[in-house]
Amino acid sequence: MRKLLTGDEAIARGAYEAGVRHAAAYPGTPSTEILENIAKNKEIYAEWAPNEKVAMESAIGASMAGARSMASMKHVGVNVAADPLMTFAYMGVNGGAVIVTADEPGMFSSQNEQDNRNYAKMGKFPMFEPADSQDCLDMTKAAYDLSEEYNVIFMIRMVTRVCHSKSLVDCGERKEVPVKTWEPDPMKYVALPAHSRILRVQIEERTEKLAEYSEKSPFNYSEMHDTKIGVIASGASYYYAKEVFGDDASYLKLGFTNPLPKNMIKDFCGKVDKVYIVEEDDPYIEEFCQVQGLTVHGKDTFPSYGEMTPDVLRKSLTGETLPEVQYDHSKVASRPPSLCAGCPHRGLFYRLGKRKDIMISGDIGCYTLAAGAPYHAMNSTVCMGASISVGHGAQQVFNRAGVKRKVVTVLGDSTFFHTGVESLINTVYNNSNTINIILDNRITGMTGHQQNPGTGFTVKMEPAHAINIEELVKAIGIKHVKVIDPNKLDEVDAALDEFMDLDEPSVIITRWPCVLKKFSDADLTEWPGLFKTKDVVDADKCIGCKKCQQTGCPALLFDKEAKKVSIDRANCVGCDVCVQVCPVGAIVKEEK
Amino acid sequence: MATKNILLTGVGGQGTILAAKMLTIGLMEAGYDVKMSEIHGMSQRGGAVVSQVRYSKEKVYSPVIEKGTADIIVSFEKMEALRTLDYIRPGGTVVVNEEEIPSMSNMTGEEEYAPDVIDEIKKAVGKVITMNASQMAQDLGNIKAANVILLGTLVKAMGLDEIDWEDIIRKNVKEKFIDLNLKALKLGMDSAE
User: Fold this and answer.
1) Is A345-526 a domain of CATH 3.30.420.40?
2) Which of A143, A364, A453, B120 is the most buried (most CB within 10 A)?
3) Can you spell out the DSSP letters for B179-190?
4) What are the chain A neighbours of B127 within 8 Å (beta carbons)?
């Protein structure tokens, strides 16, 4: 059966065909669709975990108990999951285990460009690098058989273009793999130093065997054409190189890249005059070749960062790109992403950005857009959950240095569950006095609406206990808590005013659903008539001051000739933020 | 055959992704090797959306189009045609929906939305097909059908009209929108001349 699948869909299909029974993940672009597609199979238990470490541990437990399991995440998620991953790599598996990392050369939706192939090398576990969707399916299936054969977790290293590009895939049938028997085995599963010292020695033997496999793996192969140039490539780079070099070069395509096939590489280099290494992110293969004493060209020719797309390769090799048409580039207006009309973050950031003497410690989500115009209401963003703890650290310095500056931390509901909870425990435990705002929009927004521990549903849309954020923060020890409607600007101001001079930590929960969310029955009960109204401008009253546009709402249009604002009815959902901002009362709720 | 390159672009919510999906299904069913690349993520939030489709009777390598090699750009919004114009090959065709969607920086007055975007495209590219697909779709009864009008123009302009697009529409749009989209497809095909 032939299907046109994205790499993410093909990984999910591969997991299905390989008999996977247990899959866990935390959403993160470009990896999110892996678990979303796995969850469509009734044969596989699937779960959103609150963070990647928990997802990894859930997959480890499932493997120990005898089932084939998978954890999938974006590249920075592996940092969160690295603690269990590094030790599980010592233990080995019972049921086959795979971790999928989705790296982001070019950083389309990420805060850094780390190359997670280094994790495979550091953790001494084997790795596949698929180049297209067929590779994704084939390598996933192979990874499970090999994981059990060599007794080790496998990593599959994807990149954005492999995750999100579609290509044709020949699909097969599911192979049912029985759950293996679980037996207590402290030597294997209890990571005491005495045990780990023994396992550490055994890893050397495993690595030697995997190195032998690498030399004969069907996923590592050469294609000999003209031998003046030889290209060694892995992942998406292989196809980019084929596009640029065509049949004027020979290729060594590496799909199994830890351990690398030393003899195969040496042999290939011996057959061609000049060797280029084409790979994205770090000089991972290149440095290996250099250690072997081989003369190769990689980062001396190609950029050290970004995607190695055909344009980039051609420019690096020839100094030129293909001819392009000429036009006035200055006429291209920028189109940055913006908060949607009706976004519940708008009212909060519009008011927060106007406060003086504060530092706003932000986090990862749609709301990171508040760092830019027109809000300028975010001073730092590091990683998931960092807002609260980074803010705490800064507040301690301000307090001790006698600087009168209040730190306000801001993060979403899913991000709070991810790692914000521990940060807030730290804030309470260490007697901090930050204001912490949890933007509870009832869903994981930016990655495309995934359920989370606060929403009341699992990934399979089965009912689940919805953790109440207000009760949770009170249980941690926060004494000052307010739940507000962020579309009501006076509620935003009142909550900030009340907590601004406290010597104790406080929490403001802005509770209003994401405008793009598919509302649950509970949502519609809590907010009857949600987003069913429109706001409208009375053109006679509008003075053209554009103050309403400072809320950054994309439904507000300014007519330069008439010097009046109007509201795009198709876009407006009646959140009323602009109504409250207009100094002359020209914007009102439309009468039905 | 040499690999053919199609670039579809627009603003989030205009239906570029569904048009690209139907295009790739049609190409696959016609026996072509197909690759398509999209970048998702933050772009949903009012940003630009680009789908790149490549197909051939032989193996297609890269899923992304190299600048200067697109046989056709189909732009669902006129500024987005100008933004992606580096991709067109000399002699390629640009299909532009005349709809103007101001960006946030245009709305706040920080940046001007150039009034002569289409003239600028016509100066640079020999073959430009302009149409008000949004208005045409509105006249058919639903502005959302603009994407299928543009798909119709695209497949006609690329000589892909032997593929049974009506069947693909029937299988990929909600039942109540089938008639609308069949009309939109025909209207788009007729607009390709």
Assistant:
1) no
2) A143
3) HHHHHHHHHHHH
4) none
> What is the rounded distance in angstroms from the CA atom of residue A196 to the CA atom of residue A85?
14
Among the partner-chain residues A165, A309, A374, the one whose CB lies closest to the CB of B35 is: A165
Note whether B45 contacts A337, CB cutoff 8 Å.
Answer: yes
Closest CA to A29 of B142, B41, B81: B41
- A420 contacts A440 by C-beta, under 8 angstroms: no
> What distance in Å separates the CA atoms of residue A75 and residue A37, rounded to the nearest whole number?
19
The structural domains of chain B, ordered by start, are: 4-102+116-190 (3.40.920.10)
Find, among A438, A494, A489, the residue nearest to A468 by Cα.
A438
Per-residue pLDDT 10s for chain B (193 aa) are: 899 999 999 998 888 989 999 999 999 999 999 999 987 655 556 788 899 999 999 999 999 999 999 999 999 999 999 999 999 999 999 999 999 998 888 887 778 899 999 999 999 999 999 999 999 999 999 999 999 999 999 999 999 999 999 999 999 999 999 999 999 999 999 999 7
The CATH code that applies to domain A220-318 is: 3.40.50.920
Kindly report, residue by residue over A499-531, the tens digit of the pLDDT. 999 999 999 999 999 999 999 999 999 999 899
Sequence spans of domains, chain A: 2-213, 220-318, 345-526, 535-589
The 10s digit of each residue's pLDDT in A412-430 is: 999 999 999 999 999 999 9
pTM score, whole prediction: 0.97
Interchain contact, B85 vs A334, CB within 8 Å = no
Domain A2-213 architecture: 3-Layer(aba) Sandwich (3.40)
Interface touch B107/A340, C-beta < 8 Å: no
Annotated binding-site residue? A514:
no
The CATH architecture of the domain made up of A535-589 is 2-Layer Sandwich (3.30)
A366: nearest CB among B37, B39, B45: B45
| Distance (Å, whole) CA A276 – CA B54 | 26
